[in-house]
Design brief:
128 residues, Four Helix Bundle (Hemerythrin (Met), subunit A)
């Protein structure tokens, strides 16, 4: 698949995704960025690690901006978690600290799995 086709396919997938699927897609990419950043730091590639961490930070900022405490009582706790994640990623980037990236992964990956499970349940309810 050419880069242009891949880009069109990805754009279409995002544009047609349900809100819960978009959330899972963001978490999937966040987890991938953290895996890549940790690997890059392990290889001594600070430039690549920085690129991955900055993209991950953008995702966390987007996730944070969508929180609405008037709709969901858990928004405050998740806001605090996003603030912590963002700070850890900034420090990991500045210090080249793979351990901080790993710490972020231990938080992000279970959250991603939980949101994916919730999205699957919602999809099943909407289909039935």
């Amino acid at each position: 698949m050419t880069a242009a086709l891949r880009s069109r396919y990805q754009s279409s997938a995002v544009e047609t995704a349900s809100p819960q699927r978009l959330l899972v897609m963001l978490y999937d990419r966040l987890a991938l960025d953290l895996v890549r950043a940790e690997a890059a730091l392990g290889e001594g590639d600070r430039v690549e690690a920085s690129s991955q961490l900055m993209h991950a930070q953008d995702i966390v900022l987007e996730l944070h901006s969508t929180l609405n405490p008037e709709v969901w009582e858990g928004a405050g706790a998740l806001s605090s978690l996003y603030t912590w994640l963002y700070g850890e990623m900034v420090l990991a980037n500045v210090k080249g600290d793979a351990r901080r990236v790993a710490d972020c992964r231990t938080v992000v990956e279970p959250l991603r799995d939980a949101w994916a499970e919730a999205a699957a349940i919602l999809s099943g309810q909407n289909a039935g």
